[in-house]
Hints:
Layout: H1 2-25, H2 27-47, H3 50-74, E1 79-82, E2 85-88, E3 93-95, H4 103-115, H5 123-151, H6 156-206
Antiparallel strand pairs: 1-2, 2-3
Amino acid sequence: MKTVYTNLTAKNRDAIKYVLSWGRQNWNTIRFCLLFALYLAGIYFLIKTNWVESNLLLPLSKKMAQLTNWLLNILGLTTQYYNSIVFSSQGFAIEIINKCTGILQVAFFASGVLAYRCPFIKKIPGFITGILVISVFNLTRIVTLFFIGVYAPSWFAIFHGVIWEFGMIIVTFSMWLFWLKRVNWGKVILEKNECNHSVKNIEVQNN
Length: 207
């Protein structure tokens, strides 16, 4: 029994050492995942508060309905809007609710930017560009869905629930990768310049 217990203890120690070693080697990834989950949960609970819903999301829904109505009329449809509802003379209507504003995609993108380790000043352009691009794509989504609802209503459900949902995920993730590449590209250029500067100093000293 003592021998078996000793072997088990040794195996447990080896397993603990392996986990600790793996954790140290992958700490940046673990840190990012933990912070991403923390920021995402915080933003999610924040947007679920009554104050944010009434003072931010509801006005945003109404503004998006106004923009959608404006674009649809420019593109040739006869539509009107009331609060967050857009309706056409053909009898089709959509209501832009909170989750239709793109707020969830913005939350995912913002959490990814916040969780990544870099100076906050470099995150600001990422926030601005990402939110703008996601908002434009979301507005495009709503407009195209309205056209589909009017002229091809049998396709509305699959475009609304599958195709455009997947498309918004791709756009959100692509914007985060684009920002990440820009940040890391800046680091590579800086490191390259420092390396070249060091090489020049060594050459001067040798001469």
